[in-house]
Design a protein that fits this description.
CATH class of the largest domain: Alpha Beta
CATH architecture of the largest domain: Alpha-beta prism
CATH topology of the largest domain: UDP-n-acetylglucosamine1-carboxyvinyl-transferase, Chain
Radius of gyration: 21 Å
Number of helices: 12
Shape: globular
Number of domains: 2
Number of strands: 24
Structural class: alpha/beta
Helix content: 25-40%
Length: about 425
C-alpha cells in the first residue's frame, strides 16, 4: 500500500486508541483466571489480535460486543496439543512461550515477517535449563515439549522486558517457588511495572527485592470481573508531537497521568523541547513553539525514538539520542530505518551505535520512503510530512495495521491531505 501525504497543518482533537501493551497483559491474565471476565476495549490491532488468537488456541472462549471482550478462561477446555500463530507480534511470542511451557504438553508456535529472526536468547536457554525441550531458534514452527520446572532463573536486565514479563506470567503456575533475578542495568523498566500491576490485580503474589522477584507456586489467577484497557501513550505520542511541530495544536484524550506506561514521558520531553502543553483531566493539548535541541536517554522509552527524531528535525540545534541500541532488533533495524527515512527526507542526521545526533533546522524536504514493514516507521514518516516542503510518499504504509489500523483515518480527521488506498 502506498500513501502520499501533502504538506498540511494538523489541528484538532483525537482519542487515544487502546494500549497494545496494556491489552496484552489484561487478556492473558483473564484467560489464565478461574472465572469469566470482561475486558473493556473497543478496538484492537494486528498484535492484539495475535494474542487473542493464541489464547483461543489454548482453549479460551473469547467473544466480543460493543464494549469489549468476554473471556472464558482456558481451564475449561485446555488443549494439550496446540498451534499458536503469533503473526509478527514480538510481545505475543515472548509472553506466550513461557506460558505454554508452564502448561506442559506440546505446542507449535509460528511467527511471521522478521519475528523468527529476532532473538529469543537468553530466555530460550533458561526454558531449556528448566525442563523444556525447544526446537532450533529461527526456524518455524518453534516446537515446545515438556513441563517447565520451578527454581532459580537469571536474565540480563538490558535485553528485553518481554522475556521478564513472559516468565512472570508463567512462574506462578508452577508447583513450587521460583526466583527470577535480573542482572545488570534494567531497561524498559516501566513495562515490567505494568506486568506486575496486571498480575497484582489478578491476585498473583510476587515479592520483589531490588532486582530479584520471588514467586510462590500453585497460585490461581483471579482477574477482576471487569476492567478497562488504558489509552495508548506510545501511539498518542505521534499526534502530540505533530501538535508541537505545526498548526494550532492537537489535543489527545483517554490518556491517564497515573498510567505506568513509560511512554507518557513524551509530555516532559516535549516540554524540554520547548513546546506549549496544557492538561485537562485525561487529555493533553500540545501547541507549537520555538523548539530547541535536547539530549534524550532512550533506555526506557525506545518506542518514542522514531517520533522524537522527527521533533529533533523540527527543532533548532543539536539533539542527541542515546541508549537506543535495542531498536536494532525491532520489526526492522529501527536505528537504520529511522536514519534511512529521515536522511531521504533531508534530515541532517548522524547514526551512532546506540542512537543519533540530529542537527535540527526546522524543516525537511520530502521524498519517497519505505516503511520497512515497521508500523512506527510508517507513522514517523507520516508525521515528518508536516515538516516537508514537498509531498512524502510512503511505500508499505499498511504496516500501521500492526498497532494502529485507523492511523490514516485519524490523520485525515486532523486535517491531513493524503491520497492512496489506506
Amino acid at each position: 500500500m502506498q500513501v502520499t501525504i501533502e504538506k498540511s497543518e494538523l489541528n484538532g482533537s483525537i482519542k487515544a486508541i487502546a494500549s497494545k501493551s496494556h491489552a496484552h497483559r489484561l487478556f492473558i491474565c483473564a484467560a489464565l483466571s478461574e472465572q469469566e471476565s470482561k475486558i473493556l476495549c473497543s478496538e484492537t490491532s494486528e498484535d492484539i489480535d495475535a494474542t487473542l488468537d493464541c489464547l483461543r488456541a489454548l482453549g479460551a472462549k473469547i467473544t466480543c460486543d460493543e464494549e469489549g471482550f468476554i473471556i472464558k478462561p482456558i481451564w475449561a477446555e485446555l488443549n494439550a496439543n496446540r498451534t499458536l500463530k503469533c503473526r509478527e507480534s514480538g510481545s505475543t511470542l515472548r509472553f506466550m512461550l513461557p506460558i505454554v511451557c508452564a502448561l506442559g504438553g506440546e505446542t507449535k508456535l509460528y511467527a511471521e515477517g522478521r519475528l523468527p529472526q529476532r532473538p529469543l536468547s537468553p530466555l530460550y536457554e533458561q526454558l531449556q535449563q528448566h525442563g523444556c525441550n525447544l526446537s532450533e531458534q529461527g526456524k518455524m514452527p518453534l516446537l515446545c515439549r515438556g513441563m517447565l520446572e520451578y527454581g532459580k532463573y537469571v536474565l540480563p536486565g538490558n535485553i528485553s522486558s518481554q522475556f521478564v514479563t513472559g516468565l512472570l506470567f508463567a512462574l506462578p503456575l508452577l508447583d513450587g517457588e521460583s526466583e527470577l533475578k535480573l542482572t545488570g542495568k534494567i531497561e524498559s523498566l516501566p513495562y515490567i511495572e505494568m506486568t506486575l500491576q496486571a498480575l497484582k490485580q489478578a491476585g498473583i503474589r510476587i515479592e520483589r527485592c531490588k532486582q530479584t522477584f520471588y514467586i510462590p507456586g500453585q497460585q490461581k489467577y483471579r482477574a477482576k470481573r471487569e476492567c478497562r484497557v488504558e489509552g495508548d501513550w506510545s501511539n498518542a505520542a505521534f499526534w502530540l508531537c505533530a501538535g508541537a511541530l505545526q498548526g494550532k495544536g492537537i489535543s489527545c484524550d483517554n490518556l491517564y497521568e497515573d498510567s505506568l506506561q513509560g511512554d507518557k514521558e513524551i509530555i516532559p520531553l516535549l516540554n524540554r523541547f520547548g513546546a506549549k502543553i496544557e492538561k485537562f483531566d485525561c487529555a493533553y493539548r500540545v501547541m507549537p513553539a520555538k523548539l530547541h535541541g535536547i539530549e534524550i536517554d532512550a533506555a526506557n522509552i525506545p518506542d518514542l525514538v522514531p517520533i522524537l527524531s522527527v521533533v529533533a528535525c523540527g527543532a533548532h540545534g543539536k539533539t542527541t539520542i542515546y541508549h537506543a541500541e535495542r531498536l536494532r532488533i525491532k520489526e526492522s533495524d529501527r536505528l537504520q530505518t529511522i536514519y534511512n527515512v529521515l536522511r531521504t527526507l533531508g534530515a541532517d542526521i548522524e547514526i551512532k551505535e546506540d542512537g543519533f545526533v540530529i542537527q535540527g533546522h526546522g524543516s525537511l524536504q520530502g521524498g519517497i520512503v519505505q516503511a520497512y514493514g515497521d508500523h512506527r516507521i510508517a507513522m514517523m514518516a507520516s508525521i515528518a510530512a508536516c515538516l516537508c516542503e514537498q509531498p512524502v510518499t510512503i511505500c508499505g504504509a499498511e504496516a500501521v495495521n500492526k498497532s494502529y489500523p485507523r492511523f490514516f483515518s485519524d490523520m485525515r480527521i486532523l486535517g491531513a491531505q493524503w491520497k492512496g488506498d489506506a
